[in-house]
Amino acid sequence: MTQVTVSIGSNIDRDRHVLACLDALADAFKDVQVSRVFESEPVGFEDGRNFYNLVAVFHSTLTVGELQTWCKQVEADNGRLPGSPKFSPRTLDIDLLTVGDQCGHIEGVDLPRDEILHHAFVLWPLAELLPETPHPEVGRSYAELWAEFTNGDQYLWPVAFTWRGRTISRPA
């Protein structure tokens, strides 16, 4: 079993789509752990509502390609249209961040995902969920990387969120 991390985001009917994604993850991969849910302003475009973002970790025997196909199917099941512009509102966005310690272009997916080091909405929840885990490429822990993160143009904050009767997130 390989440890997998994914980022989850939505800015259209956010609660419904994040809950649907978490349910799909829990149904497919029984040991899912999730970070707090953060609200963030859109990065890269201004025409859009704020996002909900979080990170999930689980273990799987699926290949990178199979995991990517699974993610894209859950997105499609939640109304995400294939080929939609990169910087546009979305019902659900699920991105593979890491699959074990694999690095490089694997089965059509770049691992680890670049966004880990460049976007607060990925690094902060990842650092909270797996603080001591080293980034597969740079070898430093996510907590260290978050402590040194300097892109102050990205605003995000934790929000109240409940999943399956359990509070997984509270405002700061």
Automatic annotation (TrEMBL):
Pfam families: HPPK. Residues 6-131 form the 7,8-dihydro-6-hydroxymethylpterin-pyrophosphokinase domain. It is an enzyme of class 2 (transferase). The keyword Transferase applies. GO terms for molecular function: 2-amino-4-hydroxy-6-hydroxymethyldihydropteridine diphosphokinase activity; ATP binding; kinase activity. Keywords: ATP-binding, Folate biosynthesis, Kinase, Nucleotide-binding, Transferase. Pathway: Cofactor biosynthesis; tetrahydrofolate biosynthesis; 2-amino-4-hydroxy-6-hydroxymethyl-7,8-dihydropteridine diphosphate from 7,8-dihydroneopterin triphosphate: step 4/4. InterPro entries: Hppk, Hppk_sf. GO terms for biological process: folic acid biosynthetic process; tetrahydrofolate biosynthetic process. SUPFAM superfamilies: 6-hydroxymethyl-7,8-dihydropterin pyrophosphokinase, HPPK. Its EC number is 2.7.6.3. This is 2-amino-4-hydroxy-6-hydroxymethyldihydropteridine diphosphokinase. The lineage of its organism: Bacteria, Pseudomonadati, Pseudomonadota, Gammaproteobacteria, Oceanospirillales.
